[in-house]
Design goal:
With 365 residues, the chain is an alpha+beta fold. Helices cover 25% and strands 40% of the residues. The protein is built from 9 helices and 20 strands. The strands form 2 sheets. A 10-stranded antiparallel β-sheet has the order 5-1-2-3-4-10-6-7-8-9. Strand 2 and strand 3 form a beta hairpin. It is globular and about 65 Å long. The relative contact order is 0.11.
Length: 365
């Protein structure tokens, strides 16, 4: 029987977030889930506690969108996870004990989701009926502390993640360091933080990438995703930048991930960097909005909002633009945004390329 693409919502996560993928197996207490990541890559295997599942959705705009990607061969496997997932699933895990025993014996890097909404990742170094001990990594910096161990109660675990892109890259990075490798910010990457109104966004959200060009008021950058692949070409408002970091443990990791991707020809699969090189000088937000084609999607990020908006330009002046917003896979209302409030515009991204293709197919663009 063919597998069905579904969305899974969890009690332990934000009500608006969900996992995308396929249900492979279900026991009394645990569900085996093969995931796809937001970038359209094959993801890892997730073992989900049944009690933590709030909803399984089989019909939505997002599912139709990804079903279209799958049908057209637009879901990639740049990190060759398919075979690794196949080998893992061949173990036919029935319960949490077997999953953790396997991860411990094979010294596989895993991530545990907890019922309080937190997560912890690392290598299992101790395991009994009541708790699991790990040498853990710090999610934000991608660094390990080999001395201090973290202990997690078995009853607090609601998810086990194995083989996703982030974990596989981090495993390779750890092996590289253990073999005496050394990496710094040789690629001159930057972490850029904006002056968001939201305290949570101000503390946690940042963009990563390297400078292509600049003007007195703007940076033009190749923006990277967390796996070190080019995600977008973005125009940043210098006036709303709170901080730029060029030295951190996280940037060392991102340098490694980026160089790994370059060596394996998976760094810029959509050739987005070529788009950035077409600009003889850095454009302004007004110039981008006023020259945007009717079938071109822009992704904008304002310091006032809790998230980003994506849509097509309905109207633009020298001071502001009106964006017809994309709600799922259909256009809804409009939002007028002053350029002085914009932190960033993605001029092109792998997300917008996928979306434009789909919207054109269903005659929405």
């Amino acid at each position: 029987m063919a597998l069905k693409l579904v969305e899974i919502y969890q009690h332990s996560e934000d009500e608006n977030s969900f996992l995308l993928g396929y249900i492979l197996n279900k026991t009394e207490n645990w569900l085996t889930f093969l995931s796809l990541d937001p970038a359209g890559n094959q993801g890892g295997v997730r073992f989900l506690k049944i009690d933590d599942i709030a909803e399984i959705n089989e019909d939505s705009d997002y599912l139709r969108l990804f079903s279209f990607f799958l049908a057209n061969g637009e879901i990639n496997d740049p990190y060759q996870l398919t075979q690794a997932n196949h080998d893992l699933l061949a173990q036919h895990f029935k319960n949490l004990d077997k999953i953790l025993d396997f991860a411990c014996s094979k010294q596989i890097l895993i991530k545990l989701g907890l019922k309080n909404g937190g997560s912890i990742g690392g290598f299992i170094v101790g395991l009994d009926e009541e708790e699991v001990q790990l040498t853990t990594y710090e999610e934000k910096s991608k660094t390990f502390d080999d001395v201090i161990r973290s202990t997690v109660d078995i009853d607090d675990i609601v998810e086990v993640v194995i083989n996703d892109v982030g974990l596989k890259l981090l495993e390779k990075y750890i092996d590289f360091l253990n073999d005496g490798g050394d990496v710094n910010n040789d690629l001159d990457l930057a972490q850029i933080y904006f002056s968001y109104d939201s305290p949570i966004r101000f503390q946690h959200d940042f963009v990563r990438g390297w400078l292509v060009n600049e003007s007195p008021h703007y940076f033009l950058i190749d923006r990277l995703d967390d796996a070190g692949q080019v995600a977008a070409v973005s125009l940043l408002n210098k006036d709303l930048i709170a901080n730029i970091t060029t030295q951190s443990s996280y940037l060392n990791y991102l340098n490694y991930a980026t160089m790994y991707n370059q060596q394996h020809n998976i760094f810029d699969s959509y050739h987005l960097s070529n788009f950035a090189s077409k600009f003889d000088q850095v454009p302004t937000f007004a110039e981008i909005a006023q020259t945007a084609k009717s079938d071109h999607l822009l992704t904008v990020d304002s310091f006032e909002y809790d998230g980003i908006n994506i849509g097509k330009v309905a109207n633009a002046s020298q001071e502001e633009m009106t964006l017809q917003l994309l709600d799922g896979t259909h256009f809804s209302g409009t939002e007028t945004i002053g350029y002085e409030n914009l932190c960033m515009i993605d001029l092109i991204s792998y997300d917008s390329i996928h979306l434009q293709h789909y919207l054109q197919t269903i005659n929405q663009l």
